[in-house]
Amino acid sequence: MLKKIIIILLCSSFIFPLFAQNKSLVKAVDEAKNKKYNSNVISEIEYLLQDSKDEKLNLEAFSVLGDAYKYLEVYDKAYDFYKKGLKLAEKNKLTKKIGLFKENLGSIQFQLGNYDKSFVLYSNSKNCFKRIGFLDGVDRVKGNIALIDIKTGHKERAIQMLVQMKNNPKIDLFTKATTYLTLGNIYLETSETQLAINYYLQSLSLIENIHKKEKFKVLIYQNLAESYLALKQYEKAFFYNQKSDVLLQKINSNELKSTLYLFYSKIYQGKSEFKKAYENLLLHQKFEALADNSKYVLKIENIETLNKIETQKQNLQIKEQKIKLLKSEEFVARIKIFCLILILIGVLFLLFYLIKKQRNKVKLLSH
After folding, report:
1. Is a pLDDT exceeding 80 seen at residue 315?
2. Do residues 280 and 268 lie in contact, with contact meaning Cβ atoms separated by under 8 Å?
3. Taking a C-beta distance cutoff of 8 angstroms, is the pair 180, 206 a contact?
């Protein structure tokens, strides 16, 4: 009886701390899912994740850490956690999760300008979503692929795809808003500014009252500001840029702040307020440098990864050459052994012959 009690106590001493640790990780992950990306929550998830054996929970933790670092524009860490999540999802053959992780990895590669890599990841993601009938995911990735088409000079194909998407009655609200935003961007680039403004306003009308989409709203406000700058309507440009400024007080984004101050600089320049234009230009350069640094870190990581792959290829070739050499040496050694055996057999036969001959001579002499 005493032995049973001791075993139960020992098991409890291991199980209860593990249970408490998992409970803490679940709480931290849930908090991060609500877009509470403060440093304490992120650090806690990273710390608890080190000893967690719950693969389902770890998968969620990798996802929220990737989202958090992507939101904070720390792209090297975001990419790392998405890669870890993808590896775990592939191990457990979770098709939807695989699709989501590949979509996020494709998004980061797109931001870095690696459009070929981004296209491959998006295409794989779309195939995963198609396999399980996740149509919202398919539509979302189609929109992302349209962005690649725009960047790679296939605007007509992109427009055709986006028009089909916006006319789809089953498309979800946010994907439709994103489609309008992308169409607006295309027409802004082709200087069809009023058409671009119409699409931006349609996009804004769909998500203006939705919470937790502040970053998306900032994009629309800044695009409207850029559109009115192109039309030299500086008051309207200032109005929308200021609306993005208000939201950016709650968002930590060097990229968006860089754009904000660039537009302020251009607005003040257009209004001949050169001192304010210069002050905002300096702020733009400051935040642009911070944003570029985040991307540069990941570019370096990509280069280092490629170098590692190249080194591994070279090592593999050296190993293959060594194996071929060893096989050749083994073949030569076998031939040598075979020749030695033949020589030995030959020597034995010769000895046998000489001995026999000698015996015959002895017999003849004895007679």
Report:
1. no
2. yes
3. yes
